[in-house]
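Researcher: Here's my situation. A collaborator sent me these components and asked whether they could plausibly form a single complex. I don't have experimental data yet, so a predicted model of the whole assembly would be a useful starting point for our discussion.
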Amino acid sequence: MSPTFNPRARNFTDDYVLVEKFCLKKYEFSHGDVVVFCSPSNHKEKHIKRIIALPGDWIGTTHNSHDDVLKVPKGHCWVEGDNSASSMDSRSFGPIPLGLVKGRVTHVVWPPQRIGLVERVFPQERVSSFK
Amino acid sequence: MGTQSLLWNSVKKFLTCGLIGLTISDRYASIVPVRGASMSPTFNPRARNFTDDYVLVEKFCLKKYEFSHGDVVVFCSPSNHKEKHIKRIIALPGDWIGTTHNSHDDVLKVPKGHCWVEGDNSASSMDSRSFGPIPLGLVKGRVTHVVWPPQRIGLVERVFPQERVSSFK
């Protein structure tokens, strides 16, 4: 998730973030939310990635060097890390069921010089929400 | 003054019990109603029952996530995260499961971190035969006992169609 979190590999400590779970009451997520979820291939692991596309959206991906457009199924979302070069995300394991999401990251709380809100940003040119 | 402190004591006790109850229900075990006939005759064996069966769901299994063939589990629906379903685990990660697709037989391998779930009442059950294997991360608890109605109180047995599942690696 570099540079949003852990921007430099040579940091002595990892970033610490605040994860809120109120979002799990209504399960209403927005494009660009950073979420914590259980890995679909190993339920004991949790990952932090950004939601790029919501159920019903069309997302542009590149598969075996040709461009493809995928529709995100009902009840699923498409997640990607901000650091595309070094991220295991929906481009490898496909869209994930929203039931696997465990919380939403709202703030960075450590280190002190990086304390602040986590912005909602996402590549709008790759996502189409028309129904 | 006496009445006020009595009232306050009652409120404190009520809140304490509520908090303990909530913690137990969230982390250890809870009792839930079973809706529908997809797990008939294990649960809700006759449609004309006045009340649904109530079952005990334990959450200790979520510490190690070690499930067995035939476990009945509660999980979030992969197509609608607001819904929970109760079905039986027929196959675990790495197993080969026999299914019928468009009336020809097929054999599927259950991917890593996923499981194959089916209702006991195959004729009337939306399960992995429709939505495929589900990630184990969606499982929320395991059903161990039926607790209501009184004549059906008992353990929930682990049974599954062994002839359809192959666990060789």
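Model: Some features of this prediction you could bring to your collaborator: Helices of chain B lie at 2-27, 61-64, 128-131. The radius of gyration of chain B is 20 Å.
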